[in-house]
From TrEMBL:
Listed SUPFAM superfamilies: Nucleotide-diphospho-sugar transferases
Protein name: Glycosyltransferase
Organism of provenance: Shewanella polaris
Annotated InterPro entries: Glyco_trans_2-like (IPR001173), Glycosyltransf_2 (IPR050834), Nucleotide-diphossugar_trans (IPR029044)
Domain named Glycosyltransferase 2-like: residues: 16-139
Signal peptide: none
Keywords annotated in UniProt: Transferase
Entry's Gene Ontology molecular function annotations: transferase activity
């Protein structure tokens, strides 16, 4: 029977949302496969709070594993999860964030699509859940929105907030997360390299996870910083599948295009009640980030 390792990364700073995630994973309804949960702790030392939380939910019917990765950085932790899946003979590895939780048929949908198309990876949307008091400028901002594709469409990359991976394919092709990308973009980088090596990646529109948007992210400063990082990591991401000159030209074009777009769409984003002025701010700083990435060759140390 096929077995899945569902992995949630944690640094121990979001205990309430981590508990919600564990609780929802425990309640998943699955057919014709088994799964276990791995809490991958990315910290110097193990957290007593996380250990207590695991003890609270672990049972004979719900296996929760724990792994400590003391090298700080998301790609180190994700590679530790991939290695754990390989070493323990799991067929598939699924990732979900510790500030998110799955719909009860989430894993069923991912596995069904994988089986139907013999996919090497399957991904789906992450739906933002805003506080009732959230301003519409944030609710309508594209930075909080998920990409949208037709159901079962093949795509070129996935984010690790909601993805299922064929462990054998990634291991056999020596495909691991780039540990130099501690600043972000390691997931897009990996899946772009995977599709270049022939991986098939499908979008399942029904495989839903939900993310609680916290107040600290609903600020203009956070939006600017996040957008800048997306652009700044662009060089490292583009260079994973392109030559140096093509990477330079692509980043140069995208930097100019995002900045130009920010000014062209600004009146619409201000006037249209279903749009957000934050989109123009995002585009402007996204474009600036691409130019910074060209200058720094993708080196960007602040993860937001």
């Amino acid at each position: 029977m096929r077995n899945v390792l569902v992995t949630c990364l944690s640094v121990g700073s979001r205990m309430n949302s981590l508990e919600e995630c564990i609780s929802k994973v425990k309640s998943l309804e699955v057919n014709n496969f088994t799964f276990e949960l791995l809490i991958l702790e990315n910290s110097i030392t193990a957290s007593t709070e996380i250990q207590n939380l695991i003890g609270k939910y672990r049972s004979n019917d719900f296996i929760i594993n724990h792994c400590l990765e003391s090298r700080l950085g998301i790609p180190f932790a994700r590679n530790a999860a991939l290695k754990y899946a390989v070493d323990n003979n799991f067929s598939f590895l699924a990732f979900i964030d510790d500030d998110a939780y799955p719909e009860k048929f989430w894993l069923n949908h991912l596995m069904s699509t994988q089986k139907s198309y013999n996919a090497n990876a399957v991904t789906g949307p992450q739906i933002p859940i805003f506080p009732q008091t959230a301003n519409n400028s944030f609710k309508f901002a594209s930075i909080f929105s998920e990409r949208k594709f037709a159901h079962n469409k093949t795509i070129s990359w996935a984010a690790t907030n909601n993805v299922l991976m064929d462990v054998k394919f990634f291991n056999n092709n020596n495909l691991f997360f780039n540990e130099q990308l501690t600043e972000g973009g390691e997931d897009k980088n990996l899946f772009l390299r995977a599709t270049k090596q022939g991986a098939t990646l499908y979008w399942d529109a029904n495989a839903l996870v939900y993310e609680n948007v916290v107040d600290s992210r609903m600020t203009v400063t956070w939006v600017m910083d996040r957008s800048f990082r997306h652009g700044a990591t662009g060089y490292a991401i583009e260079s994973s599948t392109k030559s140096k000159i093509y990477t330079f030209l692509t980043c140069l074009f995208k930097g100019n295009a995002y900045i130009l777009k920010s000014f062209i769409w600004l009146p619409v984003n201000i006037i249209n009640p279903k749009k957000s002025f934050l989109d123009s701010i995002c585009d402007f700083f996204h474009g600036l980030g691409f130019f910074y990435g060209l200058w720094s060759k993708g080196r960007f140390k602040k993860y937001i």
